[in-house]
Amino acid sequence: MCTVRTPLKPLFMDVLLATVLTGLTLATLVGRPDAAVTPASVGLAVLSAAPLALRQRLPIVVALVVLGALGAASVIYNDLPNNGVGMLVVMFTVATLRSRVAATLIFVLAMVVTSVAFEQTGQSFVVSQVAQVGLLLVGAWVLGEGTRHWATRTERLAAQAAQAVSRERVRIARELHDIVTHHMSVISLQAGVAEYVIDADPATAKIAIATVGDASRAALLDMRRLLDVLHVDHGDASEYAPQPGLTQVPELVNRIRGAGLEVALVVTGQCRELPAGAELCAYRMIQESLTNVLKHAGPARARVEIDYGAHMLTVKVSDDGASGRPFDEAAAAHGIRGMRERAELYGGVLTAGPREEGGFTVLLRLPTDELR
Fold this sequence. Notes:
Elements: H1 11-31, H2 39-47, H3 59-77, H4 85-97, H5 100-120, H6 127-197, H7 202-227, H8 249-258, E1 262-269, H9 276-296, E2 301-308, E3 312-319, H10 336-345, E4 349-354, E5 360-367
Catalytic activity: ATP + protein L-histidine = ADP + protein N-phospho-L-histidine
Transmembrane segments: 12-30, 36-53, 60-77, 97-118, 125-144
EC number: 2.7.13.3
């Protein structure tokens, strides 16, 4: 049989329920003048309620013991201990914690016990009375099923929330990698230039130091924008600029040029606004690619091409840097692979590899029809 996992309530509550119901059952048995108070009748009365303490741990076993005790008491002593309250409790428990097949079995056994009880207690067998008990059992069954579905839905939502948190962490890690890698590459390069020429060419050193300052401030601003999403209370959201998109590419290119890399920017097609996620994807691809050129290509020229096609956004970043430079995708876990995964998120494709004539090319294709 299928076992449905639901969070167990504290055992104390089940023990309390079993204790109270057992006490009431025994008090009723002893207080009735026509009741046969014997060790066997007391034992059956206890078995009709006490096992409920373990109802969430052994629901099927408890249900069979309780129903067996009720049926035996009805046949032997013409009595239905606790008026069948234990029967309703086990019906609810099995419906909550076990499969529908198990619940159906317990329901059938409970109806048999009910019919026997009406026959043995000397009451005239009336179908409507049995039907009323059946309705109570169905009510307990439905309530148990509803509780089970609620618990299952809660677990599913919790799992989805955990997955969403995990995806957001990965996204933030990638964004932090892109931001830190890009700006620190510019800072490192310009700091080296300043150190090299500070005595021979103070003017150039001054420009390099200014670029370091600009890159540092830009890095802090980008990180502030990103990490601000972790705040519960954003306050006045208008003071925070949105994530960068394709309209900020010229600014990015100028910053890279200031770091000493010659970059050509070519935009073709009809420029139009795309969803923020897709624009951020394209922007980060350009940023990461140009940063890699700065870090690995040596003396080189780069070219950024953005084509707004009718159905496809194509972004290409190429350079003519040192040929044969190593490309280790495993070492670029948050680089090329991160760009590729981000592209796939928006239904796009990203390819990267060396050019035949030397240098390197990263090509991104995003279907614009699917992004609208």
